[in-house]
UniProtKB/TrEMBL annotation:
Coiled coil: none annotated. Keywords: Membrane, Transmembrane, Transmembrane helix. InterPro entries: Hypoxia_induced_domain. Residues 1-67 form the HIG1 domain. This is HIG1 domain-containing protein. The chain crosses the membrane at residues 6-31, 43-63. Pfam families: HIG_1_N. It comes from the Bacteria. It comes from Aliiroseovarius pelagivivens.
């Protein structure tokens, strides 16, 4: 499965969601102007990246048989 390009794309998209989530939580932790400026935007980016990751996961399951 590791040599499947779609699987690698799914893993990378999930990793991108994790990175964006950690950056967003980190900016919440800093507080002040940094949090006010970046936290909301990062969480919106996370929602978009998460939607893409879910779509890729569903595509992967559908194309590979779903069992």
């Amino acid at each position: 499965m590791a040599d499947d390009p779609l699987f690698i794309l799914v893993v990378l998209s999930c990793a991108a969601v994790l990175v964006i989530l950690m950056l967003g939580i980190g900016s919440f932790g800093v507080g002040g102007k940094v949090a006010h400026k970046h936290s909301n935007r990062l969480m919106r980016w996370r929602i978009g990246a998460q939607a893409v990751a879910i779509a890729l996961i569903l595509l992967f399951v559908w194309l590979r048989g779903g069992n």
